[in-house]
Design a protein that fits this description.
By secondary structure, the protein is an alpha+beta fold. The chain is 23% helix and 45% strand.
């Protein structure tokens, strides 16, 4: 199983970052440049990537106490795909980090997922800043 882990400093406070990230309808704004659209129907989120690919995700958990969203990708492209995004407050209170973890099968999808995840990190750093 491939595992990707990103720990990204954000130039904003945790409360602002979490308020934006926790709402599934904001995901296209958070990852603008990588995503162009997101539609939410219950716990299903359909996202459209800038390259035209459309992916359906199921929101598994939104944990306000831990500022963490867990989701899985549905569909035929992966045997398994689970991920989480968590906002972690900085000890000083003025900044925070985004911790994003993905685990998926088959391993060879890494060549597809990793560049999108890295582009997503760059977009989140831009779009979550105050």
């Amino acid at each position: 199983m491939a595992s990707l882990y990103r720990d990204l400093p954000l130039d904003t406070d945790a409360a602002h970052a979490w308020a934006t990230l926790r709402d599934s309808r904001n995901i296209a704004r958070v990852f603008s440049g990588v995503l162009t659209d997101a539609r939410v129907d219950g716990d299903l989120r359909t996202v459209t990537f800038a390259n035209g690919n459309v992916v359906q995700e199921r929101i598994v958990a939104v944990d306000d106490a831990r500022m963490r969203v867990a989701y899985t990708v549905c569909g035929p492209n992966f045997e398994h795909y689970s991920a989480s995004m968590q906002i972690v407050a900085d000890a000083t209170g003025g900044r925070c980090r985004l911790v994003w973890i993905c685990d998926f099968l088959p391993d060879d999808r890494r060549a597809l997922v990793e560049p999108l995840m890295d582009a997503g990190c760059a977009a989140a750093a831009r779009n979550l800043a105050l």
